[in-house]
Amino acid sequence: IGFERLFKRNKQLSEKFYSGLNDIPNVRILSPEEENCRSSIITFNIEGNDYRDVAGKLSDRRIRVRVVAEAGLEGIRASFHIYNNEKEVDFVLNSIREIAES
Asked: 7, 51, 63, 90: which could form a disulfide with 58 (CB 3.0–4.6 Å)?
């Protein structure tokens, strides 16, 4: 499918995720605000929640994320690739919203 199409699709999914995170109260996005500085990996946390607990709750929903403790970041990293789709992005966002509201 080619690198350009791959990059474009990954970026499209990650930007949908980034935008959706902005709409969830108590979510703090740790990735750069400037779109041209972001990749298909978005890092965030939920204020008032231990990042490891949030990652565990996402894992319970079969959502694979990575915790990032280095340099005191205490974030959760979600990445998107060609095998993901927009419904999956929505599922992750809805799951994060439910965790943030509980």
From this structure: 63
Degrees, nearest 5: CA angle 27-22-8: 120
DSSP-assigned beta bridge partners for residue 76: 44, 67
How far, in Å, are 16, 30, 38, 79 from residue 61 at the CA level? 20, 23, 26, 16
Q: Is the pTM of this model over 0.85?
A: yes
Question: Mind spelling out the 3-state secondary structure of the chain?
Answer: CCHHHHHHHHHHHHHHHHHHHHCCCCEEECCCCCHHHCCCEEEEEECCCCHHHHHHHHHHCCCCCEEECHHHCCEEEEECCCCCCHHHHHHHHHHHHHHHHC
